Amino acid sequence: MILYRTAEALFVEHDGKAYRLGETSLDALIAHDDLHGYLWAQTAKSTPSNEPIHEKLLAPIENQEVWASGVTYYSSRRARIAESKDAGGGDFYDRVYTAERPELFFKAVAHKVAGPNSHVKIRHDATWSVPEPELTLVINPRGQIIGYTVGNDMSSRDIEGTNPLYLPQAKVYDRSCALGPGLLIRNSPMPTTTQIKLDILRANHSEFSGSTTLAELKRNPATLVEYLFRDHTFRYGCFLLTGTGIVPPDSFTLQSKDEIRITIEGIGTLANTVE
Questions:
Q1: Distance between terminal CA atoms of the chain?
Q2: Using CA atoms, how far apart are residues 5 and 246, in angstroms rounded to an integer?
Q3: pLDDT digit string, tens, across residues 6-20
Q4: Residues 191 and 134 grouped into a single domain
Q5: 166 and 72 in a common domain
Q6: DSSP class of residue 191?
Q7: Alpha helices, DSSP H only, in the chain?
Q8: In a domain, 14, yes or no
Q9: Residue 261 burial (CB < 10 Å; 0-12/13-18/19+)?
């Protein structure tokens, strides 16, 4: 089942049919004791809706914080070392990759998150910008993973590469994060065979395409959540991006009007244009 959010209501889609939920909020649903069971009950007693919900989707977030993980794939480790070699950051990222404690950082508040078919931004003071396609965990206030969505952790590689301490400036700015198209509500972990695919189109032509699977993810999602919830409380739950395993070549940088399409099996495609 996938939860979708529009300006009018919340919807749950099951077996290709969409059901409009009653008076509730995404905050309340994420905090629910048994969200999966609740949604099953709602679909069983409701009539499918004919509303064209996929044409007016919003980011599936209300009052949650968005956090992110770094250097969780070997390809990401390699890219971080390469981009920061002149700043002496190579050993720094290698140690992050092998350390017991993961890299976690704050990414966005809800009103700065882009939704499906809207725009993401690249920094005006960056010269090397890329999208980072990531499986994103939906976590309830009790620290339980209740679902998954597609995330885009936009990154200014030249800024972070100058000095690792510049990571907040490279990663955290208006519309530097996108989530969607909806929330896959699932009690069990995603299969390691799950594919993540990135396509970047420029003037309707493919500029870059790449893919990976969750088998390449070094960190266990449950472990990432356990570290995030150490001495942290999330009243409305939170989202956690789990890192990227797809890195465009060093010669590539995003341009205005590029279209970014990130697809994760079982969830769908998050499409955004660059501003």
A1: 32
A2: 28
A3: 999 999 999 989 999
A4: yes
A5: yes
A6: P
A7: 26-30, 35-45, 74-83, 90-98, 157-162, 167-171, 221-228
A8: yes
A9: middle
- Co-location of 11 and 108 in the same domain: no
Task: Tell me whether strands 177-185 and 113-114 are parallel, antiparallel or unpaired.
Answer: parallel
The DSSP element (H or E) to which 21 belongs, if any, is none
pLDDT at 86: 61
In this structure, are 41 and 79 located in the same domain? no
Number of structural domains the chain divides into = 2
At 55-84, the pLDDT tens digits run 899 999 999 999 999 888 866 666 656 666
> DSSP string spanning 26-71?
HHHHHT-TTHHHHHHHHHHHSPPB---GGGSB--S-SS-EEEEEES
Residues 125 and 48 in one domain: no
- How far apart are the C-alpha atoms of 241 and 243, rounded to whole Å? 6
Tokens of 198: 């990135």
Instruction: Give pLDDT tens digits for 114-156.
Output: 999 999 999 999 999 999 999 999 999 999 999 999 999 999 9
Q: What is the DSSP letter of 226?
A: H
pLDDT, tens only, 235-248: 999 999 999 999 99
Binning the chain into helix, strand and coil, the percentages to the nearest 5 are 25, 35, 40
